[in-house]
Amino acid sequence: MAKNTLAGKSTGKSKSAKHYAKNKKSAKKKKEYDTEYHKTKKRKKYRSLLNAENKKRKTYGNKDGKDMSHTKKGKLVKEKQSKNRARNRGKK
To answer: What number of other Cβ atoms are within 10 A of residue 59's Cβ?
Structure first.
C-alpha cells in the first residue's frame, strides 16, 4: 500500500504517542494488534465501501484533503480529513 503523503511527519503530542515513542516493545505490540484488526473482513468491507465512494466522487488519490464521512443518519458526505479523523478521539 502506498504511503499517505498527507500524513504528518512528526510524532504526536498526545500521552499515548509519547508513550509509544519511548516504549518500543509496547509500540510493536500495538502495531501487531492494529495489523490483525485491520485484516478482519468487517474492516476490509468498511474500507472498501469508503474507497469505492471516494472513487465514485472523484476524490480518491487526488490529495484534496477530503475523506468520506458518515453522518449521524448514516449518509456519506465529503469532509476534511482533519475533522473526520479527529472525531471521537477524546479531549486533549
So the answer is: 16
Q: At what angle do helices 24-39 and 15-22 cross, to 10 degrees?
A: 110
Q: In terms of residues, how long is the chain?
A: 92
Kindly provide the b/e burial profile for residues 25-39, where b requires at least 16 CB atoms within 10 angstroms of the residue's own CB: eeeeeeeeeeeeeee
- Cα dist. 26→20, 29, 78 in Å? 6, 5, 35
What global pTM score does this model have?
0.62
- Residue 10 is predicted with a pLDDT of 62
In the structure grid, which three cell numbers stand for residue 15, read together? 500521552
